[in-house]
Design brief:
Elements (H helix, E strand, L loop, with lengths): L2 E4 L6 H11 L3 E4 L14 H13 L3 E5 L11 H20 L4 E5 L8 H17 L6 E5 L12 H8 L8 E6 H7 L7 H8 L8 E6 L1 E2 L10 E2 L7 H9 L9 E3 L9 H12 L2
Parallel strand pairs: 1-2, 1-10, 2-3, 3-4, 4-5, 5-6, 6-7, 7-10
Antiparallel strand pairs: 8-9
The structure holds zinc ion (ZN) (2 copies).
The site of one zinc ion has 4 residues, from loops.
Length: 277
């Protein structure tokens, strides 16, 4: 089981790899550009490819996380177009770095209703993939269900996925904090959760785990990450999640609220110990 965390790439991909080694991560997540910006970033793919050699040498895999400001389900046509262009740019950056996956949050329907929002999101993903022919795979992340966020349940994620044309290039990133807050990840009904989650129609789509504890209680529909074992999910439940044999092949990214990146060393140590790896 690969376990790592979100790190800054602002000093260069090679420096990020050094930092990953320092905290004991063998998989790392980064933002392709300023997370508050959707302006496409100009970059030199050859230079990025060179910097990424450090990751190959150190056997470190990577995941790219799209900025939060895009909304693939927006009914505003200009924001929708901007979001598509920005995500195509994110995929190109990720691909140049040799990154396996780009994670994008499911959109918000902002009052237009779930059906319309899901339709817009699937259409946007189809448009994105028409404009990108690299290897990086597009992953939709489940949400806590704040406001009008889509993709809170397995059914909702599949409802978007069913409308995707190029299905082999799209998967799911599963965030434990979001799923706990949305009411999907129910540790009091663990067997039923596993039955739904590991269903053949869904489980093969899951490619990455975001391992976060939750400050908000179960079903509160609020996205507030907590340090591992210090939130409402707690150590016992996180251990149960990490030791599920069917999850062993999934890379785990920790995005907990540390004050300094070096503190991820403790988070990663905890997760490895709880997973027994
Ligand atoms: Zn996440
Ligand atoms: Zn979150």
């Amino acid at each position: 089981m690969r376990i790592g965390c979100h790190l800054s790439v602002s000093k260069g991909f090679d420096k990020m790899v050094d930092r990953a080694l320092e905290v004991g991560a063998d998989v790392v997540q980064y933002f392709p550009k300023n997370p508050k910006s959707y302006r496409p970033k100009k970059f030199d793919p050859d230079e990025y490819r060179k910097l990424a050699e450090a990751a190959v040498k150190a056997d470190i895999r990577s995941v790219c996380h799209s900025p939060y400001v895009t909304n693939l389900s927006t009914p505003d046509p200009s924001l929708w177009e901007i979001s598509i262009a920005s995500i195509v740019n994110d995929l190109e950056i990720a691909d140049a770095y040799g990154t396996d996956y780009l994670v994008v949050h499911c959109g918000k329907h902002v009052g237009e209703g779930r059906e319309r929002g899901e339709q817009l999101m699937a259409e946007a993903i189809n448009r994105v993939l028409e404009q990108f022919d690299g290897k990086t795979m597009f992953l939709m992340e489940n949400t806590a269900g704040q406001g009008s966020e889509l993709g809170q349940t397995i059914e909702e994620l599949l409802s978007i996925y069913e409308r995707i044309e190029d299905k082999e290039r799209v998967g799911i990133c599963f965030d434990t904090c979001h799923a706990f807050a949305s009411g999907l990840l129910d540790f009091d009904d663990w067997d039923r959760f596993l039955e739904q989650f590991c269903d053949d129609a869904f489980f093969p789509l899951v490619k990455v785990i975001h391992l976060n504890d939750s400050m908000a209680p179960f079903g509160a529909r609020r996205d507030r990450h907590a340090l591992l074992g210090q939130g409402e999910i707690g150590e016992e439940n996180l251990r149960r999640f990490l030791t599920e044999p069917r999850f062993r092949h999934l890379p785990v990214i920790i995005e907990t609220p540390v004050e300094d990146e070096l503190e991820y060393a403790d988070e990663i140590r905890k997760a490895r110990a709880w997973a027994g790896v």
